[in-house]
Design brief:
Butyryl-CoA Dehydrogenase, subunit A, domain 3, oxidoreductase, AcylCoA_DH/ox_N, AcylCo_DH-like_C, globular, Acyl-CoA_Oxase/DH_mid-dom_sf, single chain, Acyl-CoA dehydrogenase family protein, eight-stranded mixed sheet, alpha+beta, Butyryl-Coa Dehydrogenase, subunit A, domain 1, Butyryl-CoA Dehydrogenase, subunit A, domain 2, about 50% helix
């Protein structure tokens, strides 16, 4: 065992959260040096996935009863932000790893045992778009479909997808008259991966399409994510309430990294063409940086307050509330918009040097814009936020 592995193991045994952060700090220079390789390959190299696995990203939200770390949510968010601050694609993969562990907690006990039968470091990915159908048949479901945006599928051990439940070819009505949805999870070998991930940003996430061609899936392998929690503890009370907050952590971590890169460029002493002074001595640059730092601080405070609020609800047993999903969406949308603005401003302040592929600023810019296209960050979610504000104000008036 190498010295760095011994040090990481020592920290991990004493304090898993601190151990993970120490491992990330140690791995950071290698991730930065391999950013171009990650983008060109359009997925993470297998040896880097193994390093992330050894740090514990696949087990961070797995229950201690199954050998996991079961970090509390604020601690897990810190891990996610730390890796995203280094590289957007690596950060996105880390978020998928965390979400995968939380999704699995909703599975049947039989399926959960199979997923983790060989240990807690299981890479789980999937697509949350209901792009498949699950036809009810004797003994289970006949599942087929083609799902987009299956980030991490190239190194996944298990893959899941959302399906519309059907009977005799017709959708089964669920709550509020909407089609009933279920998730299916199968070993990665049972899925086909289509090479479709040619994207503007987050290139290294391997977010290809995945396909199932009419497969009979037993009842135990299909589950309802809105069912009562199967695992004890605040982390597993509800899933949908956590998802917007996880996306907010991604936006924030990437914005922090963007500012890091801008400051590093300024400290090289770079002086732009026709400028009277180096960037760091220019009042125009200092003014722009001051506004950026204020936006970043506001984003950090907003996300921190939202995470703390949700975690208090989780500890009190009151997390499973639709209004908390809307509150989380409000923060995710605002954070995505604000962090994209931070990246745009950093790119502009950096000048012409930022346009080259060698500049991390252009990659941060692309990654943040692509991340902001995610369903959890869409501006249309503000509609529900506004409706909630109206309901609450009407209640106060009465």
């Amino acid at each position: 065992m190498q010295l760095h592995e011994k040090i990481s193991d020592h920290f991990a045994m004493r304090d898993p959260h601190r151990g993970m952060l120490a491992g990330i700090k140690e791995l950071a220079p290698e991730i930065t040096a391999r950013a171009s390789e990650i983008e060109t390959a359009r997925c993470l190299p297998s040896d880097l996935v193994d390093r992330l696995r050894s740090i514990g990203i696949f087990r961070m939200f797995v229950p201690r009863s199954h050998g996991g770390l079961e970090l509390d949510l604020p601690a897990g968010m810190e891990v996610m932000k730390a890796l995203t601050r280094i590289d957007g694609s690596v950060g996105w993969i880390t978020h998928v790893a965390g979400v995968g562990g939380l999704f699995a907690a909703a599975a049947s006990p039989e399926l959960y045992r199979r997923i983790y039968q060989n240990g807690p470091d299981v890479a789980i990915c999937g697509s949350s778009q209901p792009a498949g159908t699950a036809e009810r048949v004797s003994g289970g479901y006949r599942v087929k479909g083609r799902w987009p945006f299956a980030s991490s599928c190239m190194h996944a051990d298990w893959i899941g997808g959302f399906c519309i439940v059907t009977e005799n070819g017709k959708p089964v009505a669920g709550p509020h008259g909407k089609p009933q949805l279920r998730a299916v999870a199968l070993p990665a070998r049972d899925w086909e991966i289509e090479d479709t991930w040619y994207a503007a940003g987050l290139k290294g996430t391997g977010s290809h399409h995945i396909t199932l061609r009419e497969r009979l899936v037993p009842e135990t392998d299909v589950f309802d994510l809105d069912a009562p929690p199967r695992m004890p503890g605040p982390l597993y009370q509800a899933l949908r309430q956590w998802l917007p907050l996880l996306h907010g952590a991604f936006s924030l971590g990437l914005a922090e990294g963007t500012v890091d890169d801008l400051l590093a460029l300024a400290h090289t002493g770079r002086q732009q063409l026709y400028a009277a002074a180096p960037m760091r001595d220019s009042e125009i640059f200092q003014f722009g940086l001051g506004r950026i730092s204020a936006d970043l601080r506001a984003a950090q405070a907003f996300h921190g307050a939202q995470v703390a609020s949700h975690w208090r609800h989780a500890l009190a047993g009151s997390l499973n509330d639709e209004e908390l999903i809307i509150e989380g969406s409000r923060s995710a949308v605002w954070l995505a918009t604000t962090c994209v603005g931070i990246a745009d401003a950093c790119f502009a302040l950096a000048g012409s040097s930022a346009v080259y592929d060698s500049s991390p600023l252009q990659r941060r810019l692309r990654d943040l814009h692509v991340g902001a296209q995610h369903a959890h960050a869409q501006q249309r979610l503000y509609v529900e936020v506004g409706r909630l504000a109206l309901r609450r104000s009407a209640g106060q008036v009465r």
